[in-house]
Amino acid sequence: MDQYTFKENIEIKEYQSFISNSEIVSFMQDPNWAFIKKDWKSFRLGLYHNKQLVAVGLLLIKKIIKGIYIGYLPRGFVGDLSNEKIVGEFTNGIKKVAKENHCYMIKMDPNFCFHETSVSEIKKNEKIDIPIILSKNNKQYHKTLLAFHYKHKGYPKELSKTFQPRFHMMVPFIDKEFKHINEEEFIKSFKRKIRDQIGNYHAKRGVFFEHTTDKKYLNDFMNIIKETEKRQDIHLRNKEYFEEIMDKFKEKAVLFFGKIKLQTYLEFLENNDAKKEDIEQIRNLIAAGKDIITLSTALVIMPCNQSGTRISEYLYAGNHLLASKLQVSLGLVFDICKYSIEQNCSYCNLGGVDGNLNDHLSTFKSKFNPIVMEFAGEYDLPIKKYLYYPIEFFLPFLKKIYHIIKK
Fold first, then answer.
1. DSSP character for 302?
2. Cβ-count burial of 19 within 10 angstroms (0-12 exposed, 13-18 middle, 19+ buried)?
3. pLDDT at residue 406 is higher than 50
4. Which residues contact 249 (CB under 8 A, 6 or more apart)?
5. How far is CA 368 from CA 41, 331, 335, 350, in A?
6. What pTM was estimated for this model as a whole?
7. Contact 328, 296 (CB under 8 A)
8. 8-state DSSP, 347
9. Measured between alpha carbons, how far is 59 from 404 in angstroms, rounded to an integer?
């Protein structure tokens, strides 16, 4: 008998076992992500076919105003999106949960792409063969979602237009035949100018790199994050937020640091006729009792699946302005990539960028010859249509009013 059963809150171990064996999965569908998003109510959803788990999804629900809630499946649910029966049964299940929790709609940004293109092909028209994984079967996925009344929200390029950026830059560690490359092969893919700014270049100047999963080093991380926030007039997250990530994701949450030995750097400056003000700055720091200073840091989440396409996620980063010309942040990303290769990752996701690729983040990330992943974007599943359509119509105007008032 062909029987499907939908459950609202399956056991964490069963959920994690399923995603651990999935071909592609985002850390935002890991059940631990629910503990990070504390201001959202969460459900670990599961769909069974003849008692075998065939799809899971982390559903987050949040109140918009009194009596009106929105549901969100970050990076969609994990399952075969080309299978109409699975998509249909899962959709019926989430509709039921949404209605019970007063959601007017469910938003989903599934974990597949419309396009995968080398940044060199986009910017310099250089044809480069790349692996095609995340956009495989995309037409079928899209067609299936539309068949069950998900509404595609279009193709915005701006970072601010969607819950998650539609465009990401991912550094590949596999070739066009899907074979994993080693560190030496990875280095060869860089342009000579970039190769000359990592490795021995940093070592001669006293720069070195470390990584840890021990949260006692969060203070060092937070010092750089706070300095970056102040300099760029932005707000990232507080220490408690990062502690929660490290507690819940444990060995998958890795802190990376780029540091400098001031005495070694001073000797390099003195032996290479550096500017007097640069030498004096380092001498003053040493005289003040400084020995080693952290110049760059990042928090990276390693993949939650054990096989298939494994993607490490570069989440948060910060930099010290001291010795900025040493390009320590460049070396830090290289160190993250080396670690990702050691962990048998297929890609390192350097994160979202503006779809026009003309922002400073795109310029920096382009140095690593990434693949530009254009994700499918957002799909809405209306639950209360009498609310969904008016809200969708008036939302742009409400946002404009909000920004005017905020000023």
1. P
2. buried
3. no
4. 27, 30, 32, 301
5. 38, 11, 12, 10
6. 0.93
7. yes
8. E
9. 33
In tens, the pLDDT along 287-314 reads: 999 999 999 999 999 999 999 999 999 9
Which residues are bridge partners to 373 per DSSP?
116, 168
- CB count in 10 Å sphere of residue 383: 22
Q: What is the pLDDT of residues 196-212, one digit of tens each?
A: 888 899 999 999 999 99
| Environment class of 102 (CB within 10 Å of its CB; exposed 0-12, middle 13-18, buried 19+) | middle
Q: Which of 104, 103, 106 is nearest to 91 (CA)?
A: 106
Domains and CATH numbers, the chain: 4-111+377-406 (3.40.630.30), 181-345 (3.40.630.30)
Q: pLDDT for 121-161, tens place per residue?
A: 998 887 889 999 999 999 999 999 999 999 999 999 999 88
Burial of 175 (0-12, 13-18, 19+ CB in 10 A): middle
Report the SS3 class of residue 191: coil
Q: Is the distance from CB of 353 to CB of 361 less than 8 angstroms?
A: yes
Nearest to 348 by CA among 321, 317, 377, 327: 317
Chain CA centroid to CA 327, Å: 22
Do the bridges between strand 167-172 and strand 347-353 make them parallel or antiparallel, or are there none, so unpaired? antiparallel
Q: How many residues are listed for the chain in this entry?
A: 407
> Residue type for 68, please?
I
